[in-house]
Amino acid sequence: MYTTETKKLALIRIWQILREHSDCYHLLTQEDISNYLESLYGITIERKAIARNISLLKEAGIDIETTRKGAYLAARDFEDTELQMIIDSILFSRYITTSQSKDLIDRISKLSSKYFQDNVEKTIKSINEVEKTDNNKLFYNMGIIDRAISEKKQIKYEYNKYGVDKKLHKTSEQTMTPILTVLHNQRYFLIGYSEKHKDLSFHRLDHMTNVKELNSKSTSLKKIKGIEKGIDYRELTTTKPYMFSDKAIEIEFLANSKIVDQIIDWFGKDVEFKKYMGSEDIIHVTLKSSQLAMKVWALQFLDVVEILKPVELREEIKTIIEEARKKYNK
């Protein structure tokens, strides 16, 4: 029970009641609104005053539908389906910790009615079943990185990898000019210019700890070979499906036509397909990709992909296959 409030607050409270307790499936009568006003805020007003306040809210641009059965808030900043998409993306994002996910989902659900919130509670209960990062400073680190980008400063951080104990362990210290953070394959990456290696690097944000902004000025993009005019995000994600830092090169391979869908999923539509020697089942594919990424991808689709060019990549995969055959023949 709230402390009794002045009737002057009735207007805003009625709007809050409609926002919290109504939707197109749950209409509120004047009696319902009156009961909520009294039980939640200690406000008692006549039903005619409720009708007047609803009219005032509508005049102010609040989209309220009124029928003989009652009234409800007809429009919100987000539709329930849009909120559900956002919530699902948070739920299944490995880069957000369990506690942060619960907090975000709880706050986002409050943008809709309590009936939507009730359904979301079931989602929150299943969150412990989803694999999540252990790095609880992800958003804090993102804030430091964003500030460093806007202030054109370098950053320093420790980069970590998981050990057999399933915990992150420091593997290196990095000094970087931060350029951009991108979400790729359900993971956040920092794209930066390594001051040590004088080249672009791609590091996962959930593997970064002790991120600090330095006083030293960042390296100008105009001085970085290949991105003098900025980064083409579309090209970046299609030529570097695993975010390796080597340069994209032209690659040719044969593939079973049944995996065209997967090829486009991984490398986008900037791919050339040709029939191979009149075959309906085999196609000749030409695209640009990181060679390291293509090696991983081709091995993943080993039974339906054959690398043709570059020859050194074909030979490298051939060697891997031979070594694997020896292991499995033991």
What distinguishing features does this structure have?
4-stranded antiparallel β-sheet; single chain; 27% strand; 5-stranded antiparallel β-sheet; Arc Repressor Mutant, subunit A
How is the secondary structure organized here?
Blueprint: H1 10-21, H2 30-41, H3 47-59, E1 64-67, E2 70-73, H4 80-91, H5 98-109, H6 114-125, H7 138-151, E3 153-162, E4 168-184, E5 187-194, E6 199-204, E7 208-217, H8 233-239, E8 248-256, H9 260-267, E9 272-276, E10 279-290, H10 291-300, E11 305-309, H11 311-328
Helix pairs in contact: 1-2, 1-3, 4-5, 5-6
Structure description:
39% of the residues lie in helices and 27% in strands. Strands 6-5-4-3-7 form a five-stranded antiparallel sheet, with helices on one face. The protein has a four-stranded antiparallel sheet with strand order 9-10-8-11. Strands 1-2 form a two-stranded antiparallel ribbon. The protein folds into four domains: 7-73, Winged helix-like DNA-binding domain superfamily/Winged helix DNA-binding domain (Arc Repressor Mutant, subunit A), CATH 1.10.10.10; 80-129, no CATH class; 138-225; 248-328, Alpha-Beta Plaits (2-Layer Sandwich), CATH 3.30.70. It starts with 9 loop residues before the first helix and ends with a helix. It has helices at 10-21, 30-41, 47-59, 80-91, 98-109, 114-125, 138-151, 233-239, 260-267, 291-300, 311-328, and strands at 64-67, 70-73, 153-162, 168-184, 187-194, 199-204, 208-217, 248-256, 272-276, 279-290, 305-309. α1 packs across α2 (30-41). With 330 residues, it is α+β, with helices and mostly antiparallel strands.
